[in-house]
Design goal:
The longest helix has 34 residues. By secondary structure, the chain is an alpha/beta fold. It is built from 21 helices and ten strands. The structure holds adenosine-5'-diphosphate. Adenosine-5'-diphosphate binds next to helix 8, helix 13 and helix 15.
Length: 492
């Protein structure tokens, strides 16, 4: 379309040129004819010769306009970007085009190894087997051992799920295909599925390889039958693809999520993501190791152990960001040693930036430690400082006493704080909700008691008595929790 436009324009311009030259020549001849006796110099004759040349040029250009146009286009091509851009803009974007454009699956070779991952040693150990399998599959095939096709990394954001998956690829020296679950969510039905197919085709072509799907919950949510067609077709394709290759094909699918409970059961069935690895927020030891890693090439003048303690509740990624911010501040000060002040400034920046990075002060840590120590005492189970909920009782037919014991475990933290500091604190509303739900179940569903409030009040009174009688033990456990961030069964 634009080519025709250019041709017409050129034609129009040439015609104008011929017409103007003709008019001027006629005017000149008329002037010479009328005043030839007065013309002294040869200027007029030069003028007429120039006009005739112009006229001939215009006629020549008009006759050879196609060749002239080709020449102009060729010159323009030197200005490539402009033409390419124009061409791109002219293209209509149809569904088909869109489908073609979306093939953005690239593999990378990972240069991350286990050395770059600090702490989480139990996770590394679990994944070492995967690395070994990718490195020497024959060792396993000889005994007909099938390793899981998929490993699901479960944990909150920033605990190193992506990093560890990259490290597995780096250790095994195999290509790494990264895709986030959200990138499969597309506008047109079938496009997400196409992308899944493409991902597995590429991985198979370069096997052994690691396919990493971050935030798999974006496509792997439970299918309801009524919802999003596109997401369901994508999930179905993922299931088909995972069933479609053998365990010895050399493809290992690693996926990450922080919401295991929302995933479709089909994904968790044998032969798919049948291995699950849990990652938690780093404990005190891990935080120290992460700090060591990020501070290894820089001088610092603060107490690293104290800092590790104060960062309770921080994710590994947040610790990495904190050190980076502190380094930036050090550079700003034109210094080569990170000071305590740099760390404090970085903490403030992070705290304002993100809600979940709230730094607990001593009093808040104390309250949380009493809360968790009371829970540990009542449940007689290992408990960590930031652990949420309790280990659920999975009895199929729970007795009334077992249900009441569970309610007791959920309420233990609140009553423990009340007994030790003589004040009520809003620590964990999720525990209260669980206790209420269980009391409701006990009264309304199983009719084991007549009044929800009464059930809860009786449990609370029982707890008040038990915890007051063992206040010394609770305080002892609280101190263990403050020192180690964990109370083990032996401590209780
Ligand atoms: P997730 O996938 O769990 O959200 P990432 O793996 O993307 O977390 O972590 C983000 C960044 O945090 C990493 O690139 C790395 O810089 C840092 N990080 C996370 N975990 C660790 C760790 N265990 N050791 C060292 N750095 C870590």
């Amino acid at each position: 379309m634009s080519q025709n436009l250019n041709k017409n324009q050129l034609d129009k311009n040439l015609k104008l040129m011929i017409l103007s030259a003709t008019v001027l020549i006629v005017l000149f001849f008329y002037t010479i004819y009328k005043s030839s006796s007065h013309i002294q110099s040869s200027t007029y004759y030069f003028g007429i010769v120039f006009l005739i040349i112009l006229f001939l040029c215009a006629i020549f250009a008009r006759v050879y306009r196609d060749k002239l146009k080709a020449f102009i286009d060729k010159t323009r091509k030197n200005n490539g970007f402009e033409t390419e851009l124009a061409k791109e803009q002219e293209k209509p974007v149809s569904e088909n085009e869109y489908m073609k454009k979306e093939s953005t699956i690239d593999m990378v070779s990972s240069n991350v190894t286990f050395k770059d991952v600090a702490g989480i040693s139990s996770v590394k150990e679990e994944l070492e087997e995967v690395v070994d399998f990718l490195n020497s599959p024959k060792k396993y095939q000889k005994f007909d051992v099938k390793l899981p096709k998929g490993v699901l990394l479960v944990g909150p954001p920033g605990v190193g799920k992506t990093l560890i998956a990259r490290a597995v690829a780096g250790e095994a020296q195999v290509p790494f295909f990264y895709q986030s679950g959200a990138s499969f969510v597309q506008i047109y039905v079938g496009m997400g599925a196409k992308k899944v197919r493409e991902l597995f085709e590429k991985a198979k072509a370069t096997a052994p390889a690691i396919v990493f799907i971050d935030e798999i919950d974006a496509i792997g949510k439970q299918r309801t039958g009524t919802s999003n067609d596109e997401r369901e077709s994508t999930l179905n394709e993922l299931l088909t693809q995972m069933d479609g290759f053998e365990g010895d094909s050399g493809i290992m699918v690693i996926a990450a999520t922080n919401k295991l409970e929302v995933l479709d059961d089909a994904l968790l069935r044998a032969g798919r993501f049948d291995r699950r690895v849990h990652l938690n927020l780093p404990n005190i030891e891990d935080r120290r190791k992460i700090l060591d890693l990020y501070l290894q090439n820089v001088n610092f003048s603060f107490d690293i152990d104290k800092l590790a303690i104060s960062l309770a509740g921080f994710s590994s990624a947040a610790i990495a960001t904190l050190v980076n911010e502190a380094k930036l501040n050090m550079i700003k000060r034109d210094d080569a040693t990170i000071s305590e002040e740099d760390i404090e400034i970085a903490k403030i920046k992070l705290e304002f930036g993100k809600k979940e990075n709230k730094i607990l002060n001593d009093k808040q840590r104390d309250i949380l430690a009493i809360y968790q120590a009371s829970k540990a005492y009542i449940t007689q189970q290992k408990t960590t400082l930031f652990q949420e909920g309790i280990k659920k009782d999975d009895t199929i037919y729970p007795s009334k006493t077992e249900l009441l014991n569970q309610i007791k475990a959920y309420l233990a933290g609140f009553i423990g704080v009340e007994v030790v500091v003589h004040e009520l604190y809003a620590v964990n509303s999720a525990d209260l909700k669980e206790a209420n739900a269980l009391a409701k179940l006990l009264v309304e569903e199983y009719e084991m008691a007549s009044n929800i409030k009464e059930v809860l009040e009786n449990v609370k009174n029982e707890l008040r008595k038990e915890l007051s009688n063992n206040k010394e033990k609770i305080i002892e456990l609280k101190n263990i929790m403050l020192d180690n961030e964990v109370i083990k069964e032996d401590d209780i």
